[in-house]
Specification:
The protein is an alpha+beta fold. Helices cover 37% and strands 15% of the residues. It has a 3-stranded antiparallel sheet with strand order 1-2-3. The longest helix is centred in the N-terminal third of the chain and has 19 residues.
Length: 125
């Protein structure tokens, strides 16, 4: 199967633009501001109770567009991901989704913020 690179790039760009527009919407930006005010060790709980809860999103005015999903994620590189926002691509482009991840920021250079897999993470000395 050959992939039309121009069409794939266009599909990827459209999906990425949709994710960025959603992420920059005032209600979603306010939700992120609320998240960053939560202590690092409680952010995963906030994600579970608020970010992944359609009633809580609606209460905050966050309208998730059709085709965009907010979900938990975990990556093998063990980055401190809180959640991600994804948009599926049409089939046939080689990639399945475009993803924006929201990570817990680093607390100090070389040290990760609290993470549910913290016991398995290694820190840089």
């Amino acid at each position: 199967m050959t992939i039309d690179e121009d069409a794939a790039k266009a599909a990827f760009t459209v999906a990425a633009d949709e994710l960025v527009a959603f992420g920059q919407s005032k209600p979603f930006a306010a939700l992120l501001e609320e998240l960053w005010k939560v202590p690092v060790e409680f952010r995963h709980e906030f994600v579970e109770l608020v970010v992944l809860n359609s009633e809580q999103l609606s209460h905050r005015g966050v309208v998730v567009p059709d085709g965009i999903d907010i979900q938990r994620s975990w990556f093998e590189d063990e980055r401190p991901t809180l959640f991600c926002v994804t948009k599926r691509l049409p089939p046939g482009y080689g990639w399945k989704v475009v993803t924006i991840t929201i990570d817990n920021p680093m607390t100090e250079v070389g040290k990760l913020g609290w993470h549910p897999f913290a016991d398995s993470l290694t820190e840089t000395e």
